[in-house]
TrEMBL record, chain B:
SUPFAM superfamilies: Cytochrome c oxidase subunit III-like
UniProt xrefs under PROSITE patterns: COX3 (PS50253)
GO cellular component terms listed in the entry, alphabetical order: plasma membrane
Any GO BP: aerobic electron transport chain
Protein function: Catalyzes quinol oxidation with the concomitant reduction of oxygen to water.
Main location: membrane
Name the record gives this protein: Quinol oxidase subunit 3
Keyword Oxidoreductase applies: yes
Membrane topology: Multi-pass membrane protein
Automatic annotation (TrEMBL), chain C:
Main location: membrane
Function noted in UniProt: Catalyzes quinol oxidation with the concomitant reduction of oxygen to water.
Membrane topology, as annotated: Multi-pass membrane protein
Organism: Rummeliibacillus stabekisii
Keywords: Cell membrane, Copper, Electron transport, Heme, Hydrogen ion transport, Ion transport, Iron, Membrane, Metal-binding, Oxidoreductase, Respiratory chain, Translocase, Transmembrane, Transmembrane helix, Transport
Name by which UniProt lists this protein: Quinol oxidase subunit 1
SUPFAM superfamilies listed in its UniProt record: Cytochrome c oxidase subunit I-like
Length: 94, 199, 647
């Protein structure tokens, strides 16, 4: 039975639950500043994504890892440009 | 090109398999941009509620927490499924995958219930730009989970029929990447739609 | 929608004539195929093929047909505006024609032409047997064909889209556009866009995972590099279009409020999303042409490409910058100074890597022994003409000055000066250059050159006057104008130029027929004495591309091997694994065509049936057993002897 539950997966799962709890603090403590709350959410969400990518999806397990990192980073950069560029052009920039 | 690399896990065994996994990662890159676009639309429209309700008024945390816990667990379980597959435990692998898919159904049930509540409260997809963006973002994620359920079931049937071989293992592995990815998307929805919405 | 409304467009005599000619043409094709008993041949060799070369040829074939469809639109537009107060087209018809002209030329001519050339050339240049996912490649083609079909059907059934190729809201919303025209827009682009996205993934995987042994990334031919960068942009830009079109469909057919004028909707959000995709799209069509020019200039200047590394770097930088400039398409929306400043700066920055490439081409030719072949002529014409396009682009990049140019013919002249030399000349150069590789004979040089001169002179006569008209305040998309404006004479000049271009394109096609009849057959496989790997195999290329996959030690390995008298394709034959043909991609695309067609008309029963059928095809593919087949050594020996004389 034990060999079915490798340590890195169990730790990853516990980590993702803890990160969820950490994210929940933003609504548990009233009066937290908006900036701090968004920072906490950004950090916990990014950490959750990394847990999945590295511990569960094993992005770095083959010789292709460099190309895969570049692909995913490129996608994330384009995604962030789209999100923040849209906010800049459509909401903040008036 | 079809030389077998017997030291690699089953799902990487042929060059074709390697390419499929690589190609799927690239596809996930495209999916990241797809969801990023939906998020940008949502963020730009989140405060534009017109005569409809705001996020703060309609979001309810308990069902959202259930959805989050269910998806996180399913993502963990499918990871165990891949691990079981790599040590050749077909039965354990299938059990992990089946529970994963069932949790996917639970998630969908809670989400559909959430949608029905919104509609019952008079907030539909046509109520305001905010509701359109919210339901489209959630709906796209939900549609991915639904498709994943069908796809995963098809793969399980094939493993049941043909056992674990380079082909079926490859499919099961690629499916696990998809499922983990949906979990990541959900984390962002959880953080930047719900938590940010009720702040 | 009643039957009468459905065929309402046919009431217009010109559209009726177009509709009838489509039907007559279709009957002629069917009758011809039946008479010559070619159905089986067509089905077995082309419709069900997964061979990248044949798929590429089909892409180019459809692109050429679409070039004529879009070209007729263009001629009609120029004819309508040639004289003031002209009555050739009414305003509605004119709106439809400039909309479909833009859509067809960008998405159903330029895109398939470059994707077709990539299909033909990239696997050969990297020494691969096919693309990474041959079946998916066939599906990409058929989805593109289904999308193109859908857009062309709109012309006769239900009505064309008419809100411009950019389809800005609220004009494209149901309030101002109650017909089905813009539903067609959303679905035609959606279906072909999904196909394009899959092409992007397919080629990234192919280039990363299927290069010949020894071919490091920095030893790849420049066209393959440009294809890689292009497919990266495709993969990360097309999802934005997918979302934008889905939201358009939701707004138009389900009453959501994304781009609405009330309930918090944001009409300019459409423009924003459209250009988040739309600007990278410009580079998607231009970068491969840059790659083609790099190959052609190096080949016909008899020199290696100058500044290989800086060429690669500038493409990488362009690919990233292309995602950061989109708001320059709507400076006049009324942003603050900061937004326009940011996008103005990024836009001007993108001119820098492009300029680097121009200088590299010039320096490649310096001291070279230039051969003035047809492909080289296109490359030579491209440099000065494209530079005019680029420089006017920098003028438009200045946000404050843009208020003067915006939505005038100056803009129209600018992007035609970018896209025609940057894309059309590029694909035509590539088409002449790689033609002998696929068909085993060269296109006639004399006819090719006369077509070139007609096109190049016609182009400048047609578009240069538009710069002047634009600066004089002539707005784009006006179906007519009064004689008092003084726009008449230059518009007439422009129309004559357009006619000249038309003559050039007819010559170009006549050249196919002429050369097929009269050109001597190619036996060497390397008619231009070129540099990259695709010329190392026979012409026409055998199904398996290379009997023995060559080993690569350096850039332009084939060139150096030729000089040193080595044969890089020598070696022991082994049996070769190849994928099987399949009719599934064609039928699946057909089913998705019907799905989209019913969706356009909101006929939900049809949508459900064909939506489920689409899922059925996916399930079929998942459960299908298809291990491909082997080409045995004896067959390879036989093929090699037949194609290469004694080897």
């Amino acid at each position: 039975m034990k060999e079915l539950f490798p340590k890195e997966h169990v730790l990853g799962f516990v980590g993702s639950l803890l990160l969820t709890l950490a994210a929940l603090t933003v609504i548990m403590f009233k009066g937290m500043s908006n900036g701090l709350a968004m920072t906490i959410l950004l950090i916990t969400a990014a950490a959750q994504a990394l847990v999945q990518l590295i511990l569960f999806m094993h992005i770095g397990e083959t010789d292709d890892k460099k190309s895969l990192y570049v692909t995913i980073i490129y996608a994330v950069v384009v995604g962030l440009i789209t999100v923040f560029g849209t906010l800049l052009a459509m909401v903040w920039g008036y | 090109m079809s030389k077998e690399n017997t030291s690699a896990p089953l799902e990487y065994r042929t060059h074709e398999n390697e390419m499929k996994i690589f190609g799927f990662w690239v596809f996930l890159g495209a999916e990241i941009v797809l969801f990023a676009t939906l998020f940008s639309v949502y963020f730009a429209l989140a405060d534009r509620t017109g005569t409809g309700p705001t996020g703060k008024e309609i979001f309810e945390m308990p069902p959202v927490l259930i959805e989050t816990f269910v998806l996180l667990t399913s993502s963990f379980l499918i990871g165990l499924g891949v691990h079981a597959m790599r040590i050749g435990r077909k039965k354990a692998m299938m059990v992990f995958y089946i529970i994963t898919l069932l949790l996917g159904l639970v998630f969908l049930g809670v989400e559909i219930n959430e949608f029905l509540t919104y509609i019952h409260d008079g907030a539909t997809i046509t109520t305001s730009a905010f509701m359109s963006a919210l339901m489209t973002l959630l709906g796209t994620h939900g549609a991915h989970v639904t498709f994943g359920f069908l796809w995963g079931s098809a793969i399980l049937i094939q493993i049941k029929r043909h056992g674990l071989n380079a082909k079926t293992a490859n499919k099961a592995f690629i499916f696990s990447l998809y499922w983990h990815f949906l979990d990541v998307v959900w984390i962002f929805i959880f953080s930047f739609v719900y938590l940010k919405g009720v702040l | 929608m009643s039957f009468d409304e459905l065929f309402a467009p046919m009431k217009e005599p010109m559209i009726l004539a177009a509709g009838i000619s489509i039907i007559v043409g279709a009957i002629a094709v069917v009758a011809g195929l039946t008479y010559f008993k070619k159905w089986g041949w067509l089905y077995k060799n082309w419709l069900t093929t997964v061979d990248h070369k044949k798929i590429g040829v089909m892409y180019v074939f459809v692109a050429l047909i679409m070039l004529f469809r879009g070209g007729i639109d263009a001629l009609l537009m120029r004819a309508q505006t040639a004289i003031p107060e002209n009555g050739l087209l009414n305003s509605e018809h004119y709106n439809e024609i400039f909309t479909t002209h833009g859509l067809i030329m960008i998405l159903f001519m330029a895109m398939p032409f470059i994707i077709g050339l990539m299909n033909i050339v990239v696997p050969l240049q990297i020494g691969a047997r096919d693309v990474a996912f041959p079946r998916l490649n066939a599906l990409s083609f058929w989805l593109f064909a289904a999308g193109a079909g859908l857009l062309n059907v709109s012309f006769v059934i239900g009505g064309s889209p008419n809100a411009g190729w950019t389809a800005y809201f609220p004009l494209a919303g149901t309030e101002f556009n109650p017909g089905v025209g813009n539903n067609y827009y959303a679905w035609a682009l959606q279906i072909s866009g999904i196909g394009t996205l899959m092409t992007g993934i397919n080629f990234i995987t192919t280039i990363f995972k299927m290069r010949a042994p020894g071919m490091k990334l920095m030893k790849m031919p420049m066209f393959t590099w440009s294809a890689l960068i292009t497919n990266v942009i495709i993969t990360f830009a097309f999802p934005v279009l997918t979302v934008a079109l889905a939201l358009m469909t939701l707004d138009r057919q389900f009453g959501t409020k994304f781009f609405a004028m009330q309930d918090g909707g944001m009409d300019m959000m459409w423009a924003n999303l459209f250009w988040v995709w739309g600007h990278p799209e410009v580079y998607i069509v231009i970068l491969p042409a840059f790659g083609i020019y790099s190959e052609i200039i190096a080949t016909f200047a008899r020199k290696n490409l100058y500044g290989y590394k800086s060429m690669v770097m500038s493409m990488v930088i362009i690919s990233l910058l292309s995602f950061m400039v989109w708001a320059h398409h709507f400076y006049t929306m009324g942003h603050g100074v900061m937004v326009n400043g940011v996008f103005s700066t990024t836009t001007m920055l993108i001119a820098v890597p492009t300029g680097v490439k121009i200088f590299n081409w010039l320096l490649t030719m310096r001291h070279g022994k230039i051969q003035f072949t047809t492909p080289m002529l296109y490359a030579l014409a491209f440099i000065p003409i494209f530079t005019i396009g680029g420089v006017t682009g920098v003028m438009l990049a200045m946000a404050s000055a843009d208020y003067q140019y915006h939505n005038t013919m100056f803009l129209v002249a600018h992007f035609h000066y970018v896209l025609i030399p940057g894309v059309v000349f590029g694909v035509l150069a590539g088409y002449h250059y790689w033609w002998p590789k696929i068909f085993g004979f060269r296109l006639n040089e004399k006819l090719g050159k006369s077509a070139f001169w007609f096109i190049i002179l016609g182009f400048n006569i047609a578009f240069f006057p538009l710069f002047i008209l634009g600066l004089d305040g002539y707005a784009r998309r006006m179906y007519t104008y009064s004689a008092d404006t003084g726009y008449g004479p230059l518009n007439m000049v422009s129309f004559l130029g357009a006619l000249m271009m038309g003559v050039g394109f007819i010559l170009l096609c006549y050249n196919i027929y002429y050369s097929f009849r009269h050109s001597p057959r190619e036996t060497t496989g390397d008619p231009w004495d070129a540099r990259s790997l695709e010329w190392a195999t026979h012409s026409p290329v055998p199904e398996y591309n290379f009997a023995v996959v060559p080993k690569i030690n350096q850039l332009d390995e084939y060139w150096f091997a030729k000089k040193e008298g080595r044969d890089i394709t020598a070696g022991e034959y082994e049996r070769i694994h190849m994928p099987n043909n399949s009719s599934a991609p064609m039928w699946m695309a057909g089913v998705m065509f019907l799905f989209a067609f019913f969706f356009v008309f909101s006929v939900w029963a049809g949508v459900i049936v064909f939506g489920l059928a689409t899922l059925g095809f996916l399930a079929y593919r998942s459960f299908e057993k298809d291990d491909g087949h082997y080409i045995e050594v004896a067959e390879i020996v036989e093929t090699e002897r037949r194609l290469g004389g004694e080897q």
